[in-house]
Each structure stands twice: as C-alpha cells, then as structure tokens.
Amino acid sequence: MTTELDALVIGAGFAGMYQLHCLRDRLGLNVKALEAGGGVGGTWYWNRYPGARCDSESHVYWYTFSEALMNEWEWSERYPGQAEIMRYLNFAADKLDLKKDISFNTRVTSARYDDAANRWHVGTENGESYSVKYLVTAVGCLSTANVPKFPGLENFKGDWYHTGQWPHEGVDFTGKRVGMIGTGSTGIQAAPVIAAQAKHLTVFQRTANYSVPARNAPLASEFKQYVKQNAKGIRAATRETLNGMAFKIEDRKAVETPAEERETLYEAAWERGGLQFRATFQDMMVSKEANDTAADFVKRKIRSIVKDPSVAALLSDIDHPYAAKRPPIDTDYFETYNRDNVTLVDVKSKPIVGISEHGIVTDDGEYPVDIIVFATGFDAMTGPMLRLNLTGRDGVALKDVWESGPRNYLGLQIAGFPNLFTITGPGSPSVLCNMPVAIEQHVDWISQCIEHMRDNGLETIEAKPEAVDQWVAEVNELANKTLLPQAKHSWYLGANIPGKPRVFMPYAGGMVRYRETCDDVAAKGYEGFALA
Ligand code: NAP
Question: What is the dotted CATH code of the domain comprising 147-209+331-377?
Fold first, then answer.
C-alpha cells in the first residue's frame, strides 16, 4: 500500500515541526512528517547526555512565528537544558496539534524521484511507502553519530555510549571508571557532570579546545518579564545580526585597541560569559593578528584555572584560531581537571589504537575503564542527507552528486532533484547561526515557494546547474575571507570523518546577507531555478 500525499517532511525537530505546520495549516496541503525518534525534538530527542544544554540563550531559542507560543512559554534558565527544550517542543507540538500527523519510530531509508510521474517515492525501515509531490528534509545538521572504528570495540566487556544516542533512562556512573573520548562542545559539557558522579573520569583529548564560561543561571523574574514585554523587539534584533543572536558584534577592532583596554574588554566578556565573547571585536574572525589576542587571552585563562602545570599545558596547546571550530561554552570544564578523580590523556601524541576487553588502548598502554563515552561528534551536515539514499532525475544518486562535497543552490535545492527542499542543509548559514532563526527563514521561504507554485499552476522547481556552480563558488569564497577554514580538524570542513571530502560546508556570509539573497531570488521569479 502506498500512501499518496501532497508533501512529506522528514524529521520532527524544530525544523520539521514548523514545516509541517506551514504546509498543513497555512497552505492546506495533505502532508505528514516521518520521524525516526519516538517523539518530537530531533537533535534534542537524541542528545540526552549529562550536561546537554543549548549554547544559544533561551530568549532567542524558540519559535517566533507565533505570538501565542511566545506569550505562553517561559524559560527558566539563561541557557535551556535538554529536558526543558524537550518540554518546550512538546508544548509547541501539542499547541499546534502536530503529533496526529507525525509518524514516530519511522526511519526513511530511501527516496526516489520518478521522472514520468513527477512524484517522490519514499520508503521507510518499517516497509511503508509514500508517493508525494514535494519532499522536504528536516533531518538536522548533527544527527548522524560518529563512532570511530576502533578495533576491538565489539569485545569490550563494559558499556559504551555515543552522546548523540544516549539512553532515555540515563546512565548511572556511580562507582564507575569512565573513559570519555572527545573534547568538542559535547565532551566539554559532559565532563564536569560525569566527573561529579563517577569514581574516576579519564578524558582522552586529541585536539585541545577553547571554551568560555557559559555563566548559566536561573533567570531572574525581572528578565522573564522583560522577555515577555519585548518578545517582538528581541525577535527583530535576531533578524538583524550575522548569527541570529540578539547581540551585535562590536564595531571596534582588536588590532586598533590598546593592549590594556583590550584585556579589560576580554575580561568583561569572560565574566559575562557565553558566545558573546566572540563579538568583542569585529575583526576577530577575519584577522589572524586580532584572533591571536583572543586566543592568547583564553589560553592564559586556562593556565590560571588548571592547577597542574602539565595538564594546563596540554589543555592550552590549541592549534587553531579561536572560534574557527564551533566555540564551546561551559560550566566548570577547566575546573574539572583540578579534581582528584579526573585524568587527562593526550591522544594526539599517543593515539588510541583500539579498545580491549577492559579499556581504551593508546600507544602508551591500556587505560582500564568500565564505561566508554564517545563524545566524538557527527558526520555533520551531509551525513543525515546521504543516509536517506536519495535518487534524483535519471536515477542519479545523491552520494554520487556529492562525491567531492555538497553541491546545491542556496543550501535549499540540489540540481537534478526536483521539488526536493533541504532545511538548513550545507551551503546555508545553519550551524553558524542561531538555529531557530535559520530554520524559520528556510521554512518560510520553502512554504512561500510552494505557495507560488500552486498559485501559478507550476509542477516542478529545480535548481539550475549553473546556479549551483555559482553558489558553491560563493560559499567557498565567503569562507575563505574568514579564519574558519584554518581549523584543520573541524567538522565544518568534514575533517573529523576519515575519507570525507574536505569542503567548508556552511554559508559564512551571515544570516542578514543570506536572507536578502534568498528574498531577492524569489522576487526575481525564482532566479536560478527552472520552473515548469
Ligand atoms: P565535535 O565538535 O566534532 O568533537 C568531537 C571530539 O571527538 C573532538 O574532540 C575530536 O577530536 C574527538 N574525536 C573524534 N574522533 C576521534 C578519534 N578517532 N580519536 C580521538 N578523538 C576523536 O563533536 P561534538 O562535541 O559532539 O560537537 C558537535 C557540534 O554539536 C558542536 O560543534 C555544536 O555545534 C553542537 N553542539 C552544541 C551544543 C550546545 O548547543 N551547547 C552542545 C554540544 C554540541 P578532533 O578535534 O581532534 O577531531
């Protein structure tokens, strides 16, 4: 039995839920969402690891398309934790009555475009099949867990977990020796919480990382009141910044600021905490000399916090510019290394060679552990798309089209894949932006595009190959104007996955410019797209 629909949305996180709402309730389409998880939430459904918390501040991390939703919700902390975000997304799904049109526990395993019928045929792991005119992927950027292929893992006698596939019932670390691999945003959030419970935590660090204190705290009632009264103004502010946050990047340049004043400004930013540290100077991400001043400040902070000089040296031996990798923010991360039950192991000089029955083996020997936590990140951006097994016009597979890296137009459409839209895919600001802002822009654009097609009796929309060429060149050019590609091990570049093409994936031109470009394309009759 094949279910015929107007449209199908893959995923029911922030993006899929809003897309379902727009297509069903604004456009009146016959639409469903398919979701691999057992509930709504996407990234937040899976990432339940200890310490999981958002790095966008709560007053900008929500839907802003509905005043009713904004009026009725109140966040409790400066940064929302995973459990509270799940409560929020369930609140939004219930309020919009979305769940009745979402099939949970339904993983899409194939999607094939049928040229003759102009339909997408979508298959699921459960054997269901759908035939739809429009297919929208809302699969997230960081939803394909990367568990490095260490030999011997299958023989490990203890338990192991990837942070992005965390058990719903939680993990009890009491009395356990825990080995955690990875010091990205996830490992940096998890380490202090695991260390507080475990008998011993050994952190295996390959690339040392910067981190700035988050300074998370419960929100004061005055601030909650302020957000209620100014929700629309805050929303407007997030539409005017490069990164969809409500704070602006300062106009001043680090290289033109006297050293003493610069230090005072960094110190104030460190005390304030959070991603805003990156906004202290406007030249931080484009001038190595400017960035060095921030990098030096954070490295000195690390050395001042961590008491053992050899551990401090390892943690502050950072090989890339500040924020060229996604900059983590933390609660007591570096302080955790002052605990008696925490050890740092350098696996850059002495790499992990395998897993034994009883622990993690490096070039330096075996580290016995009861539990391994893989905080080893994701096959980011392209991974979630490629595992859908998409096949476009003339039977061409996406994996072949993207063999040398992702290629699309505006991050929204792939040439040869008509009527397929990708929310926050590679080539869009996505992960360089506060995600709900990027998601709402994409969903609005896609919904208006489908409305335009319906109102004009159009059957297909497809990115033109020449528009794709230009867009890929622009995405590269914009990235190369920044220091972002200089972090050689970054997942932005695909460098964390062995064999993955090294291509800088997100659009680094900022959300404001990107939004204008998309609006301009639509205003010019969808320039760069073939409509038929
Ligand atoms: P990640 O940034 O890719 O970090 C993965 C870590 O695992 C790195 O330290 C990496 O070392 C290490 N690793 C990977 N393979 C390894 C191997 N074979 N041997 C030794 N070490 C290995 O992943 P993540 O920390 O999960 O973060 C991914 C993204 O998720 C973040 O950048 C952020 O965008 C998002 N996130 C957001 C939040 C938040 O909102 N607060 C929290 C968590 C995550 P190398 O650096 O040497 O590759």
Answer: 3.50.50.60
460 phi-psi bin (left φ>0, alpha ψ -120 to 50, beta other): beta
Question: Using an 8 Å Cβ cutoff, are 406 and 382 in contact?
Answer: yes
Q: Compute, in angstroms, the gap from residue 487 CA to the centroid of ligand 1.
A: 13
248-278: per-residue pLDDT in tens? 999 999 999 999 999 999 999 999 999 999 9
The verdict on domain 2-144+379-531 having CATH code 3.50.50.60 is yes
Q: Whose CA is nearest to atom 36 of ligand 1?
A: 185
E strand intervals along 190-258? 200-205, 212-213
For 344, phi and psi rounded to 5 degrees?
A: -105, 130
Query: What is residue 346's predicted lDDT score, i.e. its pLDDT?
Result: 98
Q: Do domains 2-144+379-531 and 147-209+331-377 have the same CATH topology?
A: yes
Domain ranges of the chain: 2-144+379-531, 147-209+331-377
Protein residue closest via CA to atom 45 of ligand 1: 207
- d(CA 190, CA 160) in angstroms, rounded, equals 15
Using the structure block, give the residue that is written with the tokens 């209620």.
Answer: 228
Give distance in angstroms: CA of 326 to centre of ligand 1.
9
C-alpha 128/C-alpha 33 separation (Å) is 13
Pick from 379, 412, 378, 420: which is nearest to 396 by CA? 420
Closest CA to 183 of 500, 482, 504, 489: 489
- Whole-number Å distance, alpha carbon 67 to ligand 1 midpoint, is 35
What are the pocket residues of ligand 1 if the criterion is a CB atom closer than 6 Å to any ligand atom? 53-55, 142, 148, 181-187, 189, 206-207, 326, 347, 352, 375-378, 431, 489, 491, 496
State percent of the chain over pLDDT 90. 99
DSSP letter for 60, please. Answer: G
Backbone angles phi, psi at 5, to 5 degrees: -140, 165
Report the mean per-residue pLDDT for the chain: 98
Distance (Å, rounded) from C-alpha 126 to C-alpha 20?
21
